[in-house]
Specification:
Strand order of the largest sheet: 1-2-3-5-4
Strand content: 15-25%
Number of domains: 2
Shape: globular
Oligomer: single chain
Distance between the termini: 46 Å
CATH architecture of the largest domain: Orthogonal Bundle
Largest sheet: 5 strands, antiparallel
Helix content: 40-55%
CATH superfamily of the largest domain: Transferase(Phosphotransferase) domain 1
Order of helices and strands: EEEHEEEHEEEEHHH
Radius of gyration: 18 Å
CATH class of the largest domain: Mainly Alpha
CATH topology of the largest domain: Transferase(Phosphotransferase), domain 1
Length: 206
């Protein structure tokens, strides 16, 4: 078993599940929380994540297969997806792929799902198929503000990790997003992104 990523909420390992290459996600204990409450929260979140990964397939979105959920150990075994993280593609390919990411996010929002962690590290280009990962922070919501939070996070990621192409990549993303949700919904969400940004700037000044 090989550690792939240490996160605030979970650690990710590369392992084997019944002879198949697999990703193991283990939700971490929060020491500041009451142990019974912490166990309850981790159990609910691992179950919710597994359900969401499976449910969004109904919308035509590609996600890893869920192999097994161990509620007692707060673990989830997922299919290992061969491919390349979008963050590691060439700038030209990232710009092109951002339109597809926009469409995927649009489909999620149209069906009342907020992903919660839209980054170029949570998409794998597997052959010509784009697979979305990590539904650990996802939730069912129709709120414009929640959908705007998804877009705001993605915009922040472009600004920090892909600064050379941020303008083109963001425009590409919005083009794809608008094709799914329509211009009216897109403008509402983008306007809310601006509201969130202004709120953040004000908080920083204060």
């Amino acid at each position: 078993m090989k550690l792939v990523k240490k996160g605030a909420e979970a650690d990710i390992y590369l392992t084997i599940w019944h002879g198949k290459k697999s990703i193991l996600k283990i939700r971490k204990r929060k020491e500041y929380r009451n142990e019974i409450l912490d166990n309850r929260i981790r159990t609910l979140r691992i179950i919710r994540e597994a359900k969401m990964i499976s449910e969004v397939k109904q919308f035509g979105i590609s996600t890893p297969l869920v192999y097994f959920v161990d509620q007692k150990k707060f673990e989830i075994y997922l299919q290992f997806v061969e491919g390349k993280l979008v963050r590691d593609l060439s700038n030209e390919m990232i710009i092109k792929t951002c339109e597809k990411i926009g469409k995927i996010v649009g489909i999620l929002h149209k069906n009342g799902v907020m992903h919660g962690d839209i980054t170029t590290s949570n998409f794998i280009l597997s052959r010509s198929n784009l697979v979305i990962l990590d539904f650990g922070l996802s939730q069912k919501t129709e709120r414009i503000e929640d959908h705007a939070i998804d877009l705001r996070l993605f915009k922040e990621v472009l600004n920090s990790a892909h600064v050379e192409i941020v303008g083109l990549a963001w425009s590409s993303f919005l083009r794809g997003y608008g094709k799914i949700v329509g211009n009216q919904k897109k403008e509402q969400v983008v306007l809310q992104v601006s509201v969130i940004e202004k709120r953040g700037r004000y908080a920083n000044v204060v």
